[in-house]
Design brief:
Keywords: Membrane, Methyltransferase, Transferase, Transmembrane, Transmembrane helix. There is one protein chain. The protein is about 65% helix and about 5% strand. It has about 180 residues and is mainly alpha-helical. The protein has one domain: Four Helix Bundle (Hemerythrin (Met), subunit A) (Up-down Bundle). It has a two-stranded antiparallel ribbon.
Length: about 180
Amino acid sequence: MTLFWVVWTAVIVQRIVELIYAKRNERWMRERGAVEHGRSHYKWIVLVHGGFFAALLLEWLTGAGALHPFWPVFLALFIVVQGMRIWILQSLGRFWNTKILVIPGEKRVEKGAYGKIRHPNYIIVTLELIIMPLIFQAYFTLLVFTLLNAFILLYIRIPAEEKALGITGGSDPVNTD
């Protein structure tokens, strides 16, 4: 029981700190002329991520979730993923954000994690949405939010981001206003 509260609270606090960091970076980027893309889908990302924490909590409180027999392995993996998350934030530095912000004329960051993998942050988020529910056997949360996240990333967010960064020349399936 205590482990759930420690992990759940720690990740919520981490997300709040990241949002503060993102807001600071957003101000810095906008001062340099950053243009926001994908604004129309941002609310859905916020809703899915907020819903994830609410669903995980609800599943735990209703007794549907319990510590997985291999929870120490999943917890260790989750901690490794958090280290990778920090590497990603450091790789992007002031360019890391929860929004798609592009400063005209700036080169795309290709150092650290971004020099090795095209969308490392989205891989980390996906792993978090899988591993955290596994620790607590919250299989409803695991299934629903892994699928929602995959849909948002594959069909909305990544195409919008690649279009904004000039990675692909194809059409974007969503409005990137």
